[in-house]
């Protein structure tokens, strides 16, 4: 059989959490950030501008405490582990592509045994250990275009036809990836995303991914 590729969004897809919202709640700015996140995921705001605006509100928080809080709060979507491990056993090259952040994504990658992980990088003041409210300068933003690019790159490096690619996500920043893959699945997706995709899962379990394949 041809080796295939499967890419997943992280927040509200593999895990039942929007990491930046959880970080913001821990920092006392939850309501402000949640409102921006909702509009960004629905495609109402430019993703990069919305990301930078939310990250700015986290300035001054101790990075390790924030990351520890979020990783301890993670709840995996039902059957996420089963689906990812099954795909890996079938020979799929698997990846999590997130508009969230390192090092949080590393825990998800390790738990689900995914081959690749790409996320955004927060700048941390090395002396104080606190978030500066900025992304690391010149780091590549993981937006819709970047997610699509990673899917294309992994397919090319694995000699997999894009028609054999699988992508799963819920937000507007997943749309390009979902449309590019041979099988793009909107998972508990925002209204605008469902309107632009053919395949949907509207129940809180990832197991239908295997049936749709």
How would you characterize this protein structure?
With 213 residues, the protein is of the alpha/beta class. It is 43% helix and 19% strand. The protein is built from ten helices and seven strands. Strands 4-3-2-1-5-6-7 form a seven-stranded mixed sheet. Helix 6 links the parallel strand 2 and strand 3. The longest helix has 14 residues. The chain is globular. The relative contact order is 0.19.
> What is the mean predicted local confidence, pLDDT?
93
* Individual helix count: 10
Helix content: 40-55%
β-sheet strand percentage: 15-25%
Secondary-structure element string = EHHHHHEHEEHEHEHEH
Low-confidence stretches: none
For the termini, the CA-CA separation is 14 Å
Strand order in the largest sheet: 4-3-2-1-5-6-7
- Main pleated-sheet profile: 7 strands, mixed
Supply Rg: 17 Å
* Spatial shape: globular
- Which structural class do the helices and strands define? alpha/beta
Write down how many β-strands occur, each being a DSSP E stretch of 2 or more residues: 7
Describe the structure concisely for a colleague.
The chain is α/β, with parallel strands linked by helices and 213 residues long. Helix content is 43%, strand content 19%.
Q: Secondary-structure blueprint of this entry?
A:
Elements: E1 5-8, H1 19-27, H2 30-41, H3 47-56, H4 63-73, H5 80-89, E2 93-102, H6 104-112, E3 116-124, E4 131-135, H7 144-157, E5 165-169, H8 175-180, E6 183-187, H9 191-195, E7 199-201, H10 208-212
Helix pairs in contact: 1-2, 1-4, 2-3
